[in-house]
Amino acid sequence: MMVSVGTLERAEADELMESFALRVTIETKDGGYQWRFDSPDLYEFQDGDRVLRSEDAKEHVENMSKQLHVNEKVTADQLAERIKQHFPKLRKMDVRWKNGEGELYTWRWKSEQVLVD
After folding, report:
1. Is the peptide bond before 88 cis (omega within 30 degrees of 0)?
2. Residue 114: which residues within 8 A CB-CB, separation 6 or more?
3. What is the pTM of this model?
4. 37 in Cβ contact with 64 (< 8 Å)
5. What's 15-66 look like in SS3?
6. What pLDDT, on the 0 to 100 scale, is given for residue 100?
7. Nearest 10 degrees: CA dihedral of 114, 115, 116, 117?
8. Which of 10, 18, 28, 49 counts the highest number of beta carbons within 10 A?
9. What is the distance between the terminal CA atoms of the chain, rounded to a whole angstrom?
10. Whose CA is closest to 92, among 34, 53, 36, 44?
11. Which uninterrupted H or E stretch holds 84?
């Protein structure tokens, strides 16, 4: 019997997504943003008062997820540095991630600097 590696990887990824969730909330000098994903297909992106959902939000959420590369061993400082690559005026961050086993991880970070204009 021959098993396609690509198919096996896809099946494992699909299983992981069944209990996966990600919420990223940040506050910058310029305003607030939120990215949200709940498996299997709830996507939401908020930029101030503007809210995008479903397919309109999917690219925003996937980009943030790729940028953060969240895992069980990452630190809040590492996540903040990754966010600052695109949001250099980051003031606060709250990241909540539920892994494939349903374990919830939370990272919070707050800038020690006072950001002025």
Report:
1. no
2. none
3. 0.81
4. no
5. HHHCCCEEEEEEEECCEEEEEEEECCCEEEEEECCEEEECHHHHHHHHHHHH
6. 86
7. 180
8. 28
9. 65
10. 34
11. helix 76-84
Residue type, 12: E
Non-local CB neighbours of 85 within 8 Å, separated by 6+ positions: 67
Token digits of residue 68: 């953060």
User: What CA–CA distance (Å, rounded) separates 46 from 51?
Assistant: 4
110's enclosing H/E stretch is strand 104-110
Residue 77: what are its φ and ψ, rounded to 5°?
-65, -40
Neighbours of 73 (CB within 10 A): 7
Task: Give the pLDDT confidence of 67-97 residue by residue, as tens digits.
Answer: 999 999 999 999 999 999 999 999 999 999 9
User: Hey, which residues does 14 pair with through a beta bridge?
Assistant: none
- Check residue 112 and report its DSSP letter: S
Question: How far is residue 99 CA from its own chain's centroid?
Answer: 12
